[in-house]
Specification:
2 copies of one chain form a homodimer.
Chain A lengths: L16 H20 L3 E2 L5 E3 H4 L4 H7 L2 E3 L10 H5 L2 H8 E5 L4 H10 L8 E10 L11 E10 L5 H16 L5 E7 H10 L6 H8 L2 H15 L4 H7 L9 H12 L3 H19 L3 H4 L9 E3 L13 E7 L8 E6 L13 E6 L1 H10 L13 E3 L4 H16 L4 E3 L6 H10 L4 E4 L2 H6 L2 E5 L5 E4 L1 H9 L1
Parallel strand pairs in A: 1-5, 7-8, 12-13, 12-14
Antiparallel strand pairs in A: 2-4, 3-4, 5-6, 6-11, 7-9, 9-10, 10-11, 14-15, 15-16
GO molecular function, one term (chains A, B): histidine-tRNA ligase activity
Catalytic activity (chains A, B): tRNA(His) + L-histidine + ATP = L-histidyl-tRNA(His) + AMP + diphosphate + H(+)
Keywords (chains A, B): Aminoacyl-tRNA synthetase, ATP-binding, Cytoplasm, Ligase, Nucleotide-binding, Protein biosynthesis
Chain lengths: ~475, ~475
């Protein structure tokens, strides 16, 4: 056996108990919300056929897929000629499987494979890790969880309204109070391009406008000109950067500008309908104001997000009082399963970036104490006699549902206390010769340092509260 | 984009909503029990350094590890000479990472990497998938979950007693009533070998005895003779196959046979101490009888399980009224982290085979109804008018914590009912013109077919019970 100093692959992480418990708290809030809205869990294998993944994420994406070497004699199907053609050619010869790159393609694959058993509309959520051979950096990992919810098989804009509701509910439940759910529509972007005389060039407009936060109005103007957008068009475009006032004001202004374009009016009418649904649902996203005085749901005509993929409404969520990019996003797509030969299945989906949500909750100190609890009480063991008295109590505590431990061997009190400290165990029971004689146990509150005497029964009742 | 008919790699599975919900029920029971005993969750990355895994599972195991191809130009470090040496040599040149093969080696790797931060005894559980390039067959998959709990850094036999308690509690909570927790000790096996005059050959004895269930006493005798075990030794051995009576009887008989051997008496004294702990914990595993009249915990001197790895107590669990191999097992090891250069860390652990537990619960119809619930009520949508009346109710239901859905578009009643059926939604609300006029809603119980009228508020209260 080797004795090397072990390490883990770069870009991957171990999650120790304290972190797992906090991550599970986030997953729990998200799952309960998804389920309340009728979404049910799906799990797909970590490995997919390489052919299922290839060609779905663009050339760059294909490079970032982790390929799994065929087992056994993987060179058996290769020749010197194959090898001479280099790695790109060889991949297909030595690898048939690959690690999941996202949850969307496996979902589409699942829908197509099970189309005859699935009852549409099909609402599923999926919380699983994905793997990307990206260069690791702060906040970017090679293994990370995605947290997706999608509904396919319906065009109803109620689904979009419910996505706003779910985002609002998850973030509110997590204790966030200052966030913006930005919404836009692919039709608005196409309508803008048409209205300013650059029909069909919304892709280029978006790439530039997407940088507004980073490079400012002048920077975007420069980039648009480099891309050959006419100066007159840019001038018509700029007022859209800071459409102000209420969402209804923005909708009115946009109607004046784009109402005559086919795509623009499709986008506007969809957004109006989403708003109507949210009003009927008495959505807090419409009525709750951020500290800035804005409602949580904000129409943003410059939101561009993933243009190549989406065809209808698009979403993006930002926490305003934390130093973090978007923590959630999504949109409607017309043809998710077309890649596997099943056209005409429209759907809409969104996802949470769990690593980012985690960092935001840490930054804002929003993890509740209850998300950190493991063992509630440690029984200290001084010697065999104290162990004998502790064992029946231990069982009584567990029977009452109290997570409890007896330190498994006699050890110095200091060592046992530091064990409790490190596991953040809030209570410790001391059973020394004095306690055995009196029949009263000492319960120590590890946070306050207070000690209190209890009979065994009262102690169990107190901790089981 | 390719239009091939998509598939998943052999030996892997998609888990649809109904199955995920049932699996999560099992995981939930296991997690809650682990946590009640002070075990906390750990998660490690799916990919480990290949060097961390290689050499830990024997030659056959090494073959079954899924290797991940280096990203980018993976051939760049190879030459024609490497290729000529074949796959076994090439693996190290083109792959540095591999998929987790079990949870034990990553746990040992974690302990060694974090030894300065960890407070010992360290109790962790880990529920994650592992991957093995085994030939798939019924009940054997290439991706499957393991469910481990281990405590390292203490020799206390309280840990063994608590493992018995956890197994008993998990299986009882899952509704199983006829199972056996078999326990033995590595020292007993070594003592037997010594006592029958074949000291040090317990490995060979065990391989043969392990087949007792399959090939019978005669078959084992034949195999032992082929292995060169003396006839006199075999004759001394055979009475052990069917040691009968109470566990204490068995301990007495074993003491007569092995009490003089060092290893045998170590094993016997450890087992006696485990029993003493269980008595002090008033363990139901000692007092609850199976339908056969045996207690759940049974000393089995022929239990051999994973001899090369374990050094103390060993466990194995079988459900007696189901057609299934062992569903749980484990044992004590002296030197888990020695493979990474950190000697002297003793520990004990066990795991549940979740796929097998799942099949057993299905076979015995033990999944509770509550483990199948997703959405509780579907609001049927006849037309825009019924939708308008449904939307505020939908929100009211969700605010009351009731998982609920409005069918997202008007559709034939039959289609909506079949949607509810397939999702096993237990209640459906009908809001037609009659209901709108009367202000009373019709609630249909999908199982009984009964219908009842409610005011909206009463309906919410009824479903939120």
């Amino acid at each position: 056996m080797s004795k090397e100093k072990p390490s883990i692959p770069k870009g991957t992480r171990d999650f120790g108990p304290a972190v797992v418990v906090k991550r599970n708290y986030i997953f729990g809030v998200i799952k309960r919300t998804f389920e309340k809205y009728g979404y049910l869990p799906l799990e797909t294998p970590a490995m997919e056929q390489l052919s299922v993944l290839t060609g779905k994420y663009g050339d760059e994406g294909d490079q970032l897929i982790f390929k799994v070497l065929n087992s056994g004699d993987f060179l058996s199907k290769t020749s010197a000629a194959d090898i001479a053609q280099g790695s790109k050619h060889m991949v297909r010869k030595v690898s048939e499987k690959a690690l999941r790159y996202d949850l969307t393609v496996p979902f589409a694959r699942f829908v197509v494979m099970n189309r005859n058993e699935i009852s549409f509309p099909f609402k599923r959520y999926q919380i699983q890790p994905v793997w990307r051979a990206d260069r690791p950096q702060r906040g970017r990992y090679r293994e990370f969880y995605q947290c997706d919810a999608d509904v396919v098989g319906t065009n109803s804009l109620l689904c979009e309204a419910e996505i706003v509701q779910m985002i609002d509910e998850v973030l509110s439940t997590l204790g966030l109070t200052d966030f913006s759910i930005k919404i836009n529509h692919r039709g608005i972007l196409a309508g803008i391009a048409e209205a300013i005389g650059e029909k069909g060039r919304e892709g280029e407009l978006c790439v530039a406008i997407d940088k507004l936060d980073k490079i400012g109005k002048e920077g975007v103007r420069k980039e648009l000109m480099e891309r050959g957008i006419a100066t007159a068009a840019i001038e018509k475009l700029e007022p859209l950067y800071d459409l102000s006032g209420s969402n209804q004001n923005k909708l009115t202004e946009l109607t004046n500008l784009l109402g005559q374009t086919t795509e623009g009016s499709r986008g506007l009418s969809d957004l109006q309908e989403v708003w109507k649904y949210l009003e009927q649902l008495q959505s807090k996203a419409l009525t709750t104001e951020n500290p800035s005085g804005q409602p949580r749901l904000q129409l943003d005509a410059t939101l561009a997000r993933g243009l190549s993929y989406y065809t209808g409404c698009i979403f993006e969520v930002k926490v305003n009082n934390a130093n973090m990019g978007s923590i959630s996003g999504g949109g409607r797509y017309d043809n998710l399963t077309g890649m596997f030969g099943l056209p005409g299945v429209s759907g809409v989906g969104f996802s949470f970036g769990v690593d980012r949500v985690y960092d935001v909750l840490e930054e804002l100190h929003l993890f509740p104490d209850s998300s950190q609890v493991g063992t509630k009480v440690l029984l200290v063991q001084f010697d065999k006699e104290s162990e004998q008295h502790a064992l029946p109590l231990l069982q009584q505590l567990r029977d009452a549902g109290v997570a409890s431990e007896l330190y498994p061997e006699p050890a110095k009190l200091k060592k046992q206390m530091s064990y409790a400290d490190q596991k953040r165990i809030p209570f410790v029971v001391l059973i020394g010769s004095e306690e055995i004689a009196s029949g009263k146990l000492k319960l120590r509150n590890m946070q306050s340092g207070e000690q209190q005497d209890f009979s065994p029964d009262d102690l169990v009742a107190y901790l089981a509260r």
